[in-house]
Design goal:
Shape: globular
Helix content: 55-70%
Number of helices: 25
Low-confidence stretches: none
Strand content: 15-25%
């Protein structure tokens, strides 16, 4: 039987390759995601290793809590701490280090590294034994007015030694001369960031840390073990200061970076799972057709002594071979997919990521396992069906029977659909989380897929009526072909249905989000103008932006909002610092109890959190800051409108500045004097903030358009990812039609014999493809609308308050799928038209 299986595979190489391609594309997505995230993790790990190269021990303040968002929020150390460390036994060298946010503006006035994950600044190592910083051109900065820039940013901005640049940080903009182009080890940049390096004194001034260090980096003597030196220093340090080895810091920072990238990894793997899920339908459908076509062959094998187990092993063996081939192809395509993902993030999302690395062992093993297991599992049902072929089938001229309504299928489908709906509801409305939502969606789609063959004949008849009218006789034949085997039609359309359902659901969610944002801005924002980061990229605006606007003629009120991290009631979360004296001038927070004025020494809590925790005005809220530790706050008020401020907790700017360092503003909102010319005020504000190249001044409508544009970017990115699943589904249509043409060789030959032209044969196959694609698209649109409505309903308390179903866009998707059906039919139609009439009518 092994020889029979291998000969069968070799005899149908094109069929095997086409079948494998469906799974290979899904595996390529899995491999590409792992290659991308492994590359990013490796890039950040290399960045941290280069920063701490040669560092035996790092001395820093203890953090009350640590997460990826608050990693650099430790309290600075006083400068005199360095003197004591330098005198300690075993210390060969020690120097202070500071860091902060630094945006570099090139000579042309544009922000450099606009798509970088972050824009950082730091003090350059004074001793070349500390940190692996190399200067490919120029030298390290050594005086005020000098800066070095990482090689990646310099290359993207065509920056050279001697150029003048502007640096934006917490204070006013400053001009610097580029004296060096820096590399970190063998890398041109630190991960996905832009980096500006200053001498220590300049860095302390720019980042507002004069007389302070974020960290002290220590190099031990030749005979001193880092662990021993750490213990020695720890014994002489105050209780709120800690000493850790350089390797421990590298491991810690790498783990935090990996955690922050975990969402990206999970996000992309979800789409990879969708692609593999769609591919599994193609595999199942293909093997089902193959078993039906090989009825006589399998019966003959049974007649000459093959057992049911041997027949089953033959089919599963072919599936195993296809799975391994698909996995190998997918791994080969994975690197290309990783580069495509980077391109999508750069061009669509605006996030500049480093190029992906090579394919690691984990990627190979996971991809092989996914492709092989999915293919074999998808072929189990067809393999079982193959064992039911009786030897007597070999004596029949044609395989018997057709599709009949199955009550068992209806019952099973209803049960699966109900179970999926229940799990989906638990995830959406019961707080079950994203994993439960994904599981519920998958089970629901499976239930719809089980039930689809029961209604496929009706769908083919209804949706095939326009096809029959437009295509004439060839259209009618195409409709009849689709109706003849509704199980095959349904299983082929199901793959496309899944892809279109996801696209439709995400489209409805994005449209509803845009409508909700528009309503929130109209009902919440009282400001006439909003100043934000250009394209929303960067760590934040310098507080000096707001100061510059306060003196602008025609401006009545200016209010800032910021962002930060704190641990509240034991959970790390975002907090929004605001100015209690002016925030109500520019925003309607919907305060239901208490007052905003109480924020000077308290906290405002969103009504949902207050209800869940049982907090009222006057309640004590346990708050812990990464810099200063525990600092409980009293509930000053409860508010309802959080969509613009973006968090469940509001504190005053003063409270935040007491407990955190390096505050930057997320928004600056302002009102114009009553009766003034808003356009003139906007022009004046633009002129006053011209030095801050990362700031843009928008009207309330432009602010809404900006946020809507970000939603559209996200929708475009997600749709691009889902299009891979749609493409795989179209490959399934190609595969099904190709096998169907082979199966109907005699039928096509007879049609040709009675006068059908080659052109009419091609037209018949194309119309059948269009009909299958339309069935899948219409079913996908219906399921997608249901998913979208459920998502919007579940997110009602998370800022998505308006339901919008973009009928025109969804109709375009259905029409585009039908048009894609024409393309999917090109190769099968050409093959059908080439059927030899004489050979076909006598084929056995």
């Amino acid at each position: 039987m092994l020889a029979v299986t291998l000969k069968g595979i070799l005899a149908h190489k094109v069929r095997v390759l086409l079948t494998a391609l469906s799974i290979a594309l899904g595996v390529a997505f899995v491999a590409g995601t792992l290659v991308l995230t492994d590359g990013l993790n490796g890039s950040f790990a290399q960045a941290f290793r280069s920063q701490y190269a040669g560092v035996d021990v790092a001395v820093r303040s203890e953090a009350a809590f640590t997460d990826s968002e608050a990693a650099n929020q430790r309290r600075p150390l006083p400068a005199d701490t360095l003197d004591g460390i330098r005198r300690a036994e075993g210390v060969a060298h020690a120097e202070g280090f500071v860091r902060g946010s630094a945006t570099v503006v090139g000579p042309d006035g544009g922000v450099l590294g606009a798509g970088a994950r972050s824009r950082d600044g730091m003090s350059a190592p004074a001793d070349n034994r500390i940190g692996d910083v190399r200067y490919s051109t120029g030298r390290a900065p050594a005086a005020a007015g000098e800066v070095a820039v990482d090689a990646g940013t310099a290359e993207s901005g065509s920056l050279a030694v001697g150029d003048r640049v502007r640096v934006l940080s917490q204070g006013p903009p400053e001009e610097f001369t580029v004296v060096g182009i820096a590399r970190f080890g063998d890398a041109d940049r630190l991960g996905a960031t832009t980096t500006a390096l200053f001498d220590l004194g300049t860095a302390q001034r720019v980042f507002g840390k004069v007389g302070q260090f974020d960290e002290i980096r220590v190099l031990g003597g030749e005979a001193v073990d880092p662990g021993e030196l750490r213990d020695r220093l720890a014994g002489a340090l105050p209780g709120d200061v800690e000493a850790v080895t350089g390797q421990a810091v590298v491991d810690e920072q790498t783990d935090l970076a990996t955690q922050s990238l975990g969402f990206l990894n999970t996000f992309l793997l979800v789409f990879a799972a969708i692609a593999v899920f769609v591919g599994s339908f193609i595999i199942w459908n293909t093997f089902t057709i193959l078993v039906a076509q090989r009825t006589r062959e399998l019966a003959l094998l049974r007649a000459i002594g093959a057992t049911r187990r041997q027949v089953r092993r033959s089919v599963l063996g072919e599936a195993l071979a296809v799975g391994v081939l698909a996995s190998v192809l997918g791994i080969g395509l994975g690197l290309g997919v990783a580069r495509l993902l980077v391109l999508l993030m750069t061009e669509v999302v605006g996030l500049d990521l480093p190029a992906p690395g090579g394919v690691g062992l984990r990627t190979v093993l996971v991809s092989l396992a996914v492709g092989t297991v999915v293919t074999v599992v998808a072929s189990v049902a067809p393999a079982r069906r193959a064992t039911k072929v009786a030897p007597v089938e070999a004596l029949r001229e044609a395989p018997p029977g057709g599709f009949r309504f199955s009550r068992r299928r209806a019952a099973v489908g209803a049960v699966v659909l109900a179970a999926g709906s229940a799990v989906l509801a638990a995830g959406l409305f019961g707080g079950g989380g994203a994993a439960l939502v994904g599981l519920g969606a998958a089970v629901t789609l499976l239930g719809v897929t089980v039930l689809l063959p029961l209604v496929a004949r009706v769908l083919a008849r209804v949706l095939g009526s326009p096809v029959a009218a437009l295509g004439g006789m060839t259209g009618k034949l195409a409709r009849d072909n689709a109706m003849r085997n509704p199980r095959r039609t349904a299983s082929t359309a199901a793959a496309l249905m899944i892809g279109l359902a996801m696209v439709a659901g995400v489209t409805i969610l994005a449209s509803s989000l845009k409508e909700s944002i528009g309503g929130d801005i109209e009902g919440t924002v009282r400001a006439d103008l909003v100043v934000q980061l250009v394209d929303g990229q960067g760590a934040g605006l310098s507080p000096q932006v707001a100061e510059a606007i306060r003196e602008t003629p025609g401006v009545e009120s200016v209010s800032q909002t910021s962002y930060g991290r704190a641990e509240i009631d034991g959970e790390p979360t975002y907090v929004t610092p605001v100015d209690p004296a002016t925030v109500t001038d520019v925003l309607d927070l919907g305060v239901t109890s208490g007052t905003v004025a109480g924020l000077s020494d308290g906290i405002l809590v969103h009504e949902d959190v207050a209800e869940a925790e049982g907090w009222q005005v006057g309640s004590s809220v346990p708050v812990s800051w990464p810099s200063t530790g525990d600092s409980p706050l009293r509930v000053a008020g409860i508010f309802a409108e959080k969509d613009v401020v973006g968090s469940d907790y509001l504190v005053s700017l003063e409270t935040y500045d007491r407990n955190a360092t390096g505050r930057l503003d997320s928004l600056v909102l302002l009102t114009a004097e009553e009766g003034g010319d808003l356009a003139a005020v906007q022009d004046a504000v633009v002129a006053d903030v011209a030095a801050f190249a990362d700031a843009e001044v928008l009207t309330a409508q432009e602010f809404y358009d900006s946020i809507s544009g970000q939603v559209d970017q996200f929708l475009l990115f997600v749709t691009a990812l889902l299009l891979l699943a749609v493409f795989i589904a179209l490959m399934g249509i190609v595969n099904t039609l190709a096998l169907s043409v082979f199966e109907r060789t005699r039928e096509i030959g007879l049609l040709r014999a009675i006068g059908m032209t080659r052109r009419q044969v091609r037209s018949m196959v194309r119309w059948e493809s269009v009909l299958i694609a339309t069935i899948g698209a219409v079913a996908g649109a219906v399921v997608g609308i249901a998913f979208g409505v459920a998502l919007v309903t579940a997110l009602d308390g998370e800022g998505v308050s308006e339901l919008a179903v973009p009928g025109v866009r969804l109709s375009v998707y259905v029409l585009a799928a039908a048009a894609a059906g024409v393309l999917a039919a090109v190769a099968p139609a050409r093959r059908a038209a080439k059927v030899d009439v004489l050979r076909a009518v006598v084929s056995d």
